[in-house]
């Protein structure tokens, strides 16, 4: 059952920053790629994240969103799954579904440590199933990309190798 779509501006009224607004096309490609079994869509999601945020940030962004998407789909497998707009359709890019609003809103609140609002968004996104794996993936993403921190402020760091004799 499809509900009327809302303008993309709804995300701005929630208070989403440009980083969070940029997550939407990546999330759309990931979720629809998984729902339709299309590997190219997931690869496109990673490409979009790299184009938007650079390789150092884009790859971990796409990977973190992929973890969230996998656990979201697992959590919602008993219903028809989340409703997502087609990321390749120009008209669809101007609108968002309720599922997309709640998912981006959840990330928004988690990144700002607003537990009450994040909990409410999780309940909406998962249809009341407070799945620990999904929540863990969201909190991990929020910890890696907190609001108000410059993109390069939290580098992943280089692996430290040592010789073991």
Shape: globular
Class from secondary-structure proportions: mainly alpha
- Tally of strands: 2
- Mean pLDDT over all positions: 87
- Number of DSSP helical runs: 7
Beta content comes to under 5%
The tally of structural domains comes to: 1
Percent helix, as a range, is: 55-70%
Alpha carbon gyration radius: 16 Å
Distance between the termini: 63 Å
Low-confidence stretches: none
Largest sheet: 2 strands, antiparallel
Strand order of the largest sheet: 1-2
Q: Please provide the ordered H/E string of secondary-structure elements.
A: EHHHHEHHH
Short description:
This protein has seven helices and two strands; from the N terminus they run βααααβααα. With 165 residues, the chain is mainly alpha-helical.
Question: What does this 3D model show about the protein?
Answer:
There is one protein chain. The protein is mostly helical. The chain has one domain (15-144). Helices cover 60% and strands 2% of the residues. It is built from 7 helices and 2 strands; from the N terminus they run E-H-H-H-H-E-H-H-H. The protein has helices at residues 9-14, 18-36, 39-53, 55-75, 98-111, 115-125, 132-144, and strands at 6-7, 95-96. A two-stranded antiparallel ribbon has the order 1-2. Helix 2 (18-36) packs antiparallel against helix 3, helix 2 (18-36) crosses helix 4 (55-75) and helix 2 (18-36) packs across helix 5 (98-111). The model has no long low-confidence stretch (mean pLDDT 87).
